[in-house]
Amino acid sequence: VSDFMITELKSDPAIVFTTFGFTSITGPVLGVVVGGNVTTKLGGYNTKKTLIVTCILATMCVGCSTPIPFIPNFWVFTAFLWMLLFIGGFILPALTGIMLNTVQKDLKTTANSLANLCYNLLGYLPAPFVYGAIYDLGEGGNSKSAMSALMFTPVLCVIFILSAAHLIIKSDILGYKSQK
Hints:
Layout: H1 2-7, H2 13-41, H3 48-65, H4 74-101, H5 108-124, H6 126-135, H7 143-171
C-alpha cells in the first residue's frame, strides 16, 4: 500500500509512512474492539443477528476495497483504506467465534489453528508477493493492476462468507430456530 501511495498517488514518502502506520494500526485495532463489543451486545457468536450483521459488514468491506485502486486522492484513498481495515477488524472476532462454534468441541483447537494458518499462508504472506509479481509484469510499473488484484480478492471472501452463512442457517448448526 505504501508503494502504491508513493508511485501512483505521488505522495511524499514521509507523509505516506506516517499516515499508513497510523491507518494500519488504528483501523484494525478499533475494529476489533468495537466489533467485539457489538457482537456481545447482539448476544454473542451463536446468534443469528451476529451472523447477519457480519455478512452485511463483509459486503460493506467489499464496497470499501473495490474503489481503492481507482481513487486518485491520497486522503480519500487513506479513508477508504482505514474503513476497509476497520471493518475487517470488526468482523474478524465474530467470524472466528462463529467458525469455532460450528465445529465439535474436541476439534476447536485444531480448527482455530487451521484458520490462523490459512490467514497467514493465504492472506498476509502472499499479498506483497502478488503485488510485486503483478507490478513487475511486462515492462513493470503496473501498480494500479497490482492494487486492483489485491483489493478485488475480498469479493471472493464475501462469496465464501455468504455461502457459509447460508449453510449455517440451513443446517441450523447454531440453533437459530430456537432463538427469537
